[in-house]
Amino acid sequence: MAEEGTGYRKVVYDERRWRTLREKRGVAERVLSALHEAGITDAFVYGSVARGDVRPESDVDAFIPHPVNPEVLQARIEELLGGWKRRVVVQATPTYAVKGYIYLDDLTSVSFPLVEMMPSELLFYDVAGKVDLEGVRRGVRVPGMNKSLIAIIPVDDGHLEYPVELDVEKAAKLMGVSPDALRERVRVLKRRREHGRTGLYKEIELSAEETFSGVLKRLVDTNPYLSRRLRRG
Asked: Which of 25, 90, 149, 151 lies 20 to 30 Å from 69 when distance is taken between CA atoms?
């Protein structure tokens, strides 16, 4: 566990913040439990809900780290979680894995890759911080970096904050991740800041008639990088 010192800022949680964390974790447990019931046992939540530094407006993002049949998943979400609000296909860059998002509400989503992800792409979730269903149930909080490039290190009464760019090697050690993976994530987030709100290459909201598979085919037909990637796979 990190000790407070030069460069650190300590944040002590009040009861309101602990209550918000409990509420967000309750949502996460419900979603991950439903995915387990659907036979998807390796899903996890990532980001602030995994680290603990949540706010009322924080998303609850559940991620499945491998391709699934998106239409079957959608049907199971309807059955087990009472439906969904909207569906989105996202690609961060022309060469990055295409992902599907099923939003249960404005702050809760289940996401999954529509193509096999590369190990370097999966490292993003280690950098952000991730917790599986068992960890959620046990109240585990993990270190990770937020979108402001601050390493969040959980402690008993809150967390410590350490600016990643102050010393990437030290931040990586505190977080238990590869310095190279951390540098890459910093680079991606800074690039997104320069290109607007999301910095995403593609963000497509599906109409009622569209399917994830249909949108993926359209992207493959118009993106030679993605087409070659699928052939290699």
From this structure: 25
What is the extent of the structural domain holding 207?
A: 9-141+201-232
Eight-state DSSP code of residue 85: S
- pTM value? 0.91
pLDDT digits (tens, 9 = 90+) for 74-93: 999 999 999 999 999 999 87
Report the number of distinct structural domains present in the chain. Answer: 1
- The stretches of the chain forming alpha helices (DSSP H) are 15-37, 48-51, 70-81, 119-128, 133-138, 168-175, 179-194, 212-222, 224-232
Residues 225, 185, 200, 56: is their CA dihedral positive or negative? positive
Q: What is the pLDDT of residues 28-79, one digit of tens each?
A: 999 999 999 999 999 999 999 999 999 999 999 999 999 999 999 999 999 9
Contact 120, 144 (CB under 8 A): no
